[in-house]
Amino acid sequence: MVTADNSAAKTRGLARQLESGETYLALTAAKEVFALTDSLSCVLQSSTLSVSGALYAVNVTLEQLQKMHTEEHFLELWNKAQSKISDWSLSDIKLPRHIRPHRRFDHQPNAGDAHQHESTFDYYRIQYFSFADVVICECVIVSSNLVQ
Length: 148
Known about the structure:
Blueprint: H1 4-18, H2 21-44, H3 51-68, H4 71-87, H5 120-147
Helix pairs in contact: 2-3, 2-4, 3-5
């Protein structure tokens, strides 16, 4: 059962997340990718679509995703997000908390500190490219399933 105090705390937590630069950057990146995949989804669900038309739509989407899979595009996305974050007074983009292993694992030879990124730009660049890679791979799988 949700009490008034509990829902107020959840609302404050949600508001804090929505005011963070990390959330804005993630939503901006997701919007670009999902706009492409949503269009592809609508085309693939058309009742009048032929196999050649479906392959063409997948290939066009893959080309657009490959254009987004560049350092220049991420830099443009990053700069646009930084500009909006400062315009809207959102909190700055920060690295996630660094979690140290518990002391009981310190004596194990393979239990060193987790990798810590030098900058927020590097960390979120890796996250962006990992996300884009997954979407591109899924489009390739769809394309190969259409050919079979």
